[in-house]
UniProtKB/TrEMBL annotation:
The keyword Mitochondrion applies. It comes from Crocodylus porosus (Saltwater crocodile). InterPro entries: Metalloenz_LuxS/M16 (IPR011249), MPP/UQCRC_Complex (IPR050361), Pept_M16_N (IPR011765), Pept_M16_Zn_BS (IPR001431), Peptidase_M16_C (IPR007863). This is Mitochondrial-processing peptidase subunit alpha. GO terms for biological process: protein processing involved in protein targeting to mitochondrion. Pfam families: Peptidase_M16, Peptidase_M16_C. One of its GO terms (cellular component) is mitochondrial matrix. Residues 98-247 form the Peptidase M16 N-terminal domain. The gene is PMPCA. SUPFAM superfamilies: LuxS/MPP-like metallohydrolase. Substrate recognition and binding subunit of the essential mitochondrial processing protease (MPP), which cleaves the mitochondrial sequence off newly imported precursors proteins.
Amino acid sequence: QARKSIISSLVTRGNSSLLLPDPRDPCRVPPRGALTRLLPRRSGLAVYRQFSSGGAGGGYPGVPLTQPLPGLPAPAFAAVDGQEKFETRVTALDGGLRVASQNKFGQFCTVGVLINSGSRHETKYLSGISHFLEKLAFSSTAQFGSKDEILLTLEKHGGICDCQASRDTTMYAVSAEAKGLDTVVNLLADVVLQPRLSDEEIEMTRLAIRFELEDLNMRPDPEPLLTEMIHAAAYRDNTVGLNRFCPVENIEKMDRKILHSYLKNYYTPDRMVLAGVGIEHEQLVECAKKYLLGVNPVWGSAKSKDIDRSVAQYTGGIIKVEKDMSNVSLGPTPIPELTHIMIGLESCSFLEDDFIPFAVLNMMMGGGGSFSAGGPGKGMFTRLYLNVLNRHHWMYNATSYHHSYEDTGLLCIHASADPKQVREMVEILTKEFVLMSGTVGEVELERAKTQLKSMLMMNLESRPVIFEDVGRQVLATSTRKLPHELCDLISEYNLLLRIHCIMLYWYSGGNCSFQPADSCLLKARVG
């Protein structure tokens, strides 16, 4: 009887079949078999074709993807002129402390303290102090009993914290809700000026540094070690050539007295910048006056007595390290045993006019790994791809780097290949350096300039990157060049001639500020 009621509820109208509910039991669902028998059987491909652009079921047949679809409103794109919507404001306070800020739309902000302090200033101290202070950052202070208390305080404002120490700058930064600005600046001031540096924290830092050094030596990618080696070879035993990582022999020698002696000389207001992005400038200035001015640091007097003002002296040289890299694989399959080489030349500081031409030159060289995915903007038409990776299948990597500081710079190429190909690899890299002094094509130059501007603008979409850019520029020059100003400089320079002349000077014995090639080539080898 139930089957008859289901069949009787079937009404056929033309080519369409409609299953009507049984009036006596409207909630009853027909059996699966009944639905299967009633619905037409069509292949999945035919159904997909019906709704494709070329099918009979509608769509836009015959309209190529390069043309807009008819009948649809034109999309309204945001007008981008490259201009900053908010200006960067800088205020100098008593004692030399500078406050820099740039407002930005959003509910969160990034605030931090940047200090003119790094491994290049450790000439008169144990090497590795900056590395130690980086690991000790955001530990217990005069107000906070432990790192956990600091993290819990930031958690109330959705915040995170970080500290990074480089060769010339130490940076303490916090990202949190803009409403918690007062708490954030208070915490930063306490972390920078009132750290406890307890024996337990120092011992834990020793363990952390030992682990980090072991990790660096076991990584398949030796790029951080090569960067250390190329700096040590270029600036032997001075300024930026000093170790950024704490040497193993100095780990046990570090104590509170040595750290306080260093902090007393370099953590002073005249060497600091309080920078913020996403907040009002007046609020940041008030917080700086409230928490950073007139505070007596835990190490005593805030007046510097013994500042190292050494200027980087380029020496050149070769550093080689023979190392078994057969046990650094991340899995059961061993990675290829490679020889890694970095060759470099002295360039210019970021304060010189030639800094932008060198940045364009670095983009023009480009490079990457032999297994890079490629694609638009990935640099597949850069010189190291076209002339090195595409022509020599045995090259695993060829990448250009440019390191720039306030008084010097270093342009280098990192490459890796089988140990049997070392000689040929060095010859190929040296040839690329020689070709830098040759003719630069207009298309090649414009592509590098466009890629540099694109990278600059894309990086500055991130709030933490804007913070670091504002802080570093103000720390070095007390001002900031806005992105559109940098883009204008990239576009307006006659970089074709300028790059040609700069690179030609390296290989000439004429009157120039660069040394001849035989004393400029550096080589750092691991393998």
